[in-house]
Every structure is written in structure tokens, then in C-alpha cells.
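1st attempt posting a full record on here, be nice pls
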Amino acid sequence: MFKLVTGIVLLPLTNAVVKMTYRILPKQAHESSLRLEYIDKTIVAAPSVMVLQVSKEVERVVGMVRQNIIDASEGIINHTVERARQIRDNEETIDFLTGEIVDYISKANMIEMPEEESNHLAVMFQGMNDIEQIGDHACKILDQNEKCIENKWIFSEKACEEFKVIYEEDVYMLDRVMNKLRDGEIDEAFADKTRKEEHAIKRMCSEANANHMKRMNNGECAFDQGVAFV
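the predicted structure (as C-alpha cells):
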């Protein structure tokens, strides 16, 4: 009876109690993201369902990695670090999810399953390390931007244009590759085309670095600023 009466009294006050609790112990912005949304480790599903769950969770990670690249790069161009907290919160979630997904795939491989599903999970397993490293690079870009702002280094309009073109090409490539990976449609022709695009991006980076060296030689920017750009 005591529990029943207490429940009836408190039920209309639930929202107020929750708000009061978060005022006393503020909820972290990324707190609810440190969990798997699609994978249920407590249930042994059919192989096709397991592949679908992993694919959706990987897409979620890639979405955060992609956003971090954009936010960190736009921070360089716009000379701002207003998204720094969000980038680092996302990176914490990315690291957490990467570990959880890899652990799930490792245990799933102990189950006998069709070759197609097994190969798909193996690709996801190998790809998670690469995806996580892309997220690390986004944080490195943020670190360089914070150094620029601390030292009041502002890149020229030309430098920002070169940087923007390169990062947008990278994001475009990431989108295309992940879409193909999700649909399982990567063939040799697509792989060859993507490798050529990667070589083109490398050439763009070399040209941008050479142009920045000229600006340094002309006294348009300091040596440390040039290192940050490179």
C-alpha cells in the first residue's frame, strides 16, 4: 500500500523530479550516446539480422566521424573552435562504439553462419579500425586549429580555399565508399576509380603545400603557421 500511494503521489511530479535531478547532477551532452542503438548483445539473432545490426551501428559511427571532419575543418576556415566540445564528445562515443562493435563481431564469428554474412562481418571488422583513425585525424585538425587561434594565426583566403576543396573531396569520397560498402556493391572498377581520386587529392595537397611555402618565403605567414597548415 505504501508503494502504491507513493507511486500515485509522485507520478504527476515525475518531470519536475527529473528536472530537479539534472540541476543537481547535470547530464553530459554525450551521455546517452555511449550505448549501442542497433546491436543487442543479449540476443543471438539470425546471421542476416546480425549483419544488418552491425551495418546500422557502423553507419552511426561513420556519421559522427563525418560530422567531426566537417566541424573541425570548418573551424580552420572560419577561425573558430565553437564546436570543439562536440567534436571531443563525438570522439569519445566513436572510440566506445568501435570497441563494442569489434567485440560483437569477434563473438559473432564464433557462430557458424553462411559465407556471405561471414565475409561481410569480416570487412566491417577490418574497416572499423580505418574509420576510427579518420575520427582521430579530425581531432588532430581541431588541435591545430586551437593552436592557430591561441597564437592568432589567420590563414589567407587562398589558403582557406585550397583547404576547403581538399576536405570536401575527402568527405565526398568517404560518402561514396561507405554507401558502396553498405550496399555490398564495391567492384574492381569502383575501387580503381576511388584510388585515382585519392591520388588526385594527394596531388592537390602537394600543390597546396607548395603554394603555402611560397607564401612563407614571401613573408605572408610565419614558419609555425605554415607547419600548422601542412
